[in-house]
UniProtKB/TrEMBL annotation:
Pathway(s) this gene product operates in, as recorded in its UniProt entry: Glycan biosynthesis; sucrose metabolism
Name of the protein in its database record: Sucrose transport protein SUT3
Organism, as annotated: Urochloa decumbens
Function: Responsible for the transport of sucrose into the cell, with the concomitant uptake of protons (symport system). May also transport other glucosides.
InterPro entries: MFS_trans_sf, Suc_symporter_pln
Gene3D superfamilies membership: MFS general substrate transporter like domains (1.20.1250.20)
């Protein structure tokens, strides 16, 4: 195969398809940790004394990092003249910071104990651990910022290396590694035996649940380290010519977040409507994304992270089952990803998008009903519901599975529609994608700030947020029918987000 020209005008050697697959391995390593973060950290932080109503605020770092870090890192990586290439220095640095932040999170209880949170054994102490919570939140925020530092350059690296394989092949490989990372991460999160396999993880400050989290995260560090080494070896980049970088800088064109906001007036026709529907769609998803495993532990398994030993055990079992549900969801997501393009070619992207929103509407309503039923708010008391526990818990897992298809739509169709609209105008895909990211991070900020206090207002745990999510999903479906542009069936191309944030 021949060579391809990179952004600096130099020839980039054509990489084989196997080499391209190995060059993208870091995406799987990052997603492994992201899956653990989604499934375990909201429940775990409550064991350190942070109340449920405030746990959602902790997730503000994700949208802030997505809004600021990715565009800025993307800008700097475009102009980086390192001998390692444009992307690999940022990937390598970000992965080191991820490993540090994960270790801080995993050992936050031990750090808090050493700083005087308590002198009691974790088996009997149920009070607040403020030092541990502080280090946990610091590690959590650092993890999100470093994740975003890696994800942008990793996506750009695949585009740089794709060559004659084309963007579709690069995207498919990227999504495949995301699916692998999800499956490994959720499998680790649903495992209750890390403390048995590595008994040294248990300490006076860190009991079974904590040791399981610590073990899962330490394994993710090993996998990410391996993934980073493989990517650094196989993703051979041609360094950017310093003269080219200087000429681009001297051109004075705005870049990063500034370019996104300045370019709002140049959006192609139909793009503002896509932004509105995208924002409503993500508003319907974020309550589930942030609180799915916590919902399983509280509402479906009647546990509490700060309750009696029996309640804590029930809560942890629910969290593990939730992680198993996310594992099943990821499997369905992987298979569904291959169906999206044929469906859009047959039905149009608009119909598929609207259909997925209606599915989410029903699913979020069912989550609300199941949670209320399990707690005895519907059809009797908790004791009556307990007799039907097995059926309710099976139904809850079925909802995780059912949401795999609409999640595949969420991760592909809005981006594909955006690419089509940009192409119809003759370019500006970077601008349109950057603006689309705003319609994702703003809903996440709204849910992060509002869902905890909203749930606390009604005193019903996670249930009120899921009820509102159902309303948002219905609104997104109606808005999609009215507002989304009618695009050609034949012109659809699957373009996936390929990431967790």
């Amino acid at each position: 195969m021949g060579d391809t020209e990179d952004g600096g005008g130099k020839k980039q050697p054509q990489i084989s398809l196997v080499g391209l697959f190995l060059a993208c391995m870091v995406a799987g390593g990052v997603q492994y940790g992201w899956a653990l973060q989604l499934s375990l950290l909201t429940p775990y932080v409550q064991t350190l004394g942070i109340p449920h109503a405030l746990t959602s605020v902790m997730w503000l770092c994700g949208p802030i990092a997505g809004l600021l870090v990715q565009p800025c890192v993307g800008l700097y990586s475009d102009k980086c003249t390192s001998k390692l290439g444009r992307r690999r220095p940022f990937i390598f640095t970000g992965c080191i910071i991820i490993c540090i932040s994960v270790i801080v999170i995993g050992f936050s209880s031990d750090i808090g104990y050493a700083l005087g949170d308590t002198t009691e054994d974790c088996k009997v102490y149920t009070g607040k651990r403020l030092h541990a919570a502080l280090f946990f939140v610091m590690g959590f925020w650092l993890l999100d910022f470093s994740n975003n530092t890696v994800q942008g350059p990793a996506r750009a690296l695949m585009a740089d290396l794709a060559g004659s394989h084309g963007p579709s092949a690069a995207n498919a490989i990227f999504v495949s590694w995301m699916a692998i990372g999800n499956i490994l991460g959720y499998s680790s999160g649903s495992t209750n035996d890390w403390h048995k396999w590595f008994p040294f993880l248990q300490t006076r400050a860190c009991c079974e649940a904590c040791a399981n989290l610590k073990g899962a995260f330490l394994v993710s560090v090993v996998f990410l380290s391996l993934s980073t080494v493989v990517t650094m070896v196989f993703a051979t980049e041609v360094p950017l010519d310093p003269a080219t970088a200087k000429s681009e800088s001297d051109a004075g064109e705005p870049s990063g977040p500034l370019a996104v906001f300045k370019g709002l007036k140049n959006l192609p026709p139909g793009m503002p409507q896509v932004l509105v529907v995208t924002g409503l769609t993500w508003l319907s998803w974020f309550p589930f994304i942030l609180f799915d495993t916590d919902w399983m532990g509280r509402e479906m398994y009647h546990g509490r992270p700060d309750g009696s030993p029996a309640e804590v055990a029930n809560f942890q079992e629910g969290v593990r089952q939730g992680a198993f549900g996310l594992l099943l969801n990821s499997v369905v997501l992987g298979f569904s990803s291959f169906l999206i393009e044929p469906m859009c070619r047959k039905l149009t992207a608009k119909v598929v998008w609207v259909m997925s929103s209606f599915i989410v509407c029903v699913a979020m309503a069912m989550v609300t009903v199941l949670g209320s039923w399990s707690l005895g708010d519907i059809g009797g008391n908790v004791q009556d519901a307990a007799a039907q526990d097995k059926g309710l818990k099976s139904a809850a897992l079925a909802l995780f599975v059912a949401l795999g298809f609409p999640f595949a739509v969420l991760c592909s169709v809005p981006f594909a529609v955006t690419a089509q609209l940009a192409a119809s105008k003759g370019g500006g895909q970077g601008l349109c994608t950057g603006v689309l990211n705003i319609s994702i991070v703003v809903p996440q900020m709204i849910i992060a700030v509002g869902s905890g206090p909203w749930d606390e207002l009604f005193g019903k745990g996670n249930i009120p947020a899921f009820g509102v999510a159902s309303v948002f999903a219905f609104t997104a479906a109606v808005a999609g029918i009215v507002m989304l542009p009618n695009l050609s069936k034949s012109s659809f191309r699957a373009v996936s987000m390929g990431g967790g944030h």
